[in-house]
Design a protein that fits this description.
The chain has 381 residues and is mainly β. The protein folds into two domains: 178 residues, Jelly Rolls (Sandwich); 126 residues, Jelly Rolls. It is 2% helix and 41% strand. It contains two helices and 29 strands. The strands form six sheets. Strands 17-21-14-11-16-9-8-29 form an eight-stranded antiparallel beta sheet. Strand 8 and strand 9 form a beta hairpin.
Length: 381
Amino acid sequence: MPFYQTKGLVSAKRHTVFKRSEDSIFYEELVSREGFSSIYSNLYHLKMPTRVSKLGKLHPFKIKKIKNKHQARHIQTQNIPNNGDIVYGRIPLLFNEDVIIHKAHINQSMDNFYRNAHYDEVIYVQSGSGNLFTNFGQLSIKMGDYIVIPRGVIWQLKIDDDMRCLVIESKSPIETPRRYRNNFGQLLEHSPFCERDIKTPDLLDPIDKEGSFKIDVRTNGGLQEMFYAHHPFDLVGWDGYYFPWVFNINDFEPITGSIHQPPPVHQTFTSKGFVICSFVSRMFDYHKDAIPAPYPHSNVDSDEVIFYSQGDFMSRKGIGLESITHHPMGLPHGPQPGRYEESIGKKKTEELAVMVDTFKPLNITENSVKIEDDKYYLSWL
């Protein structure tokens, strides 16, 4: 997220001696994107951040696509049982070379630390609460939060009660839409949210502890166990533009119009291969002849995935909380019979939903097929 933050102790000038005492120094680490050509932060440690003591096992992680028919789908993720922590308990449902969409029903806090080396992550909290502890500091987590965790951040999730999350892994950075930023990166006046709505980590006291600390490092091939000789949360300070952050879906201010507005007005995040949109409670269109329900459409260059989070979904029937619909590119879709007409004259909607539109076809996993309503494609008859 491109706005400057400084937390804790930082040196007066970059890349110079930063004294801890008369005979010791703090150790600087640069974390940067696109080599040295994009956003970065400088971190200051008690110990050198490179002190790997040993390598453990590689736990392979390969997602298999299945051959299946090209059709609209309704994936009933509410039927997934609670199982494990957010790393080992996530269930991949849909994927392509740009993005992996998982569901995680969490009933355990994490024992180990975690670092994603090859993917950025967005975690949408459907229910539950907890605290995300990172090397940048602590973030309290509640229902409706989007947690944006850039690759390379070390973190550990401790839950207060069972949590259900939509987990999105991205091969490219997760950013705010460019049309909502000025030339300096600041969110503009017409943006549906601003920096004031964003939570950044609260830096805690550094942990000065020697030992053997396991970090599960997510790579393209799986989870690689790495053991460090010191606690990874040993930062005394950091500054820059690169850090994990939280934005709550309820702070998204909807953009409305006199006639039905297309999905880009709901866009919240962007990446190179997909966008994420937030459908929130809002006033309906105010033209005297407006039809508030979305018009049937064939978005021939996108696969549309919608996660139904809360409320009454005016364009769908037979959809429960935590359902996911997948409408693949090249097929028309839209409101189900009666919903288009029923929306006429309605004044507002009370709903929360997260949409992921991809620009390449999505593959289906066996996990999805096991919990899908296999008659959903007939629901427009």
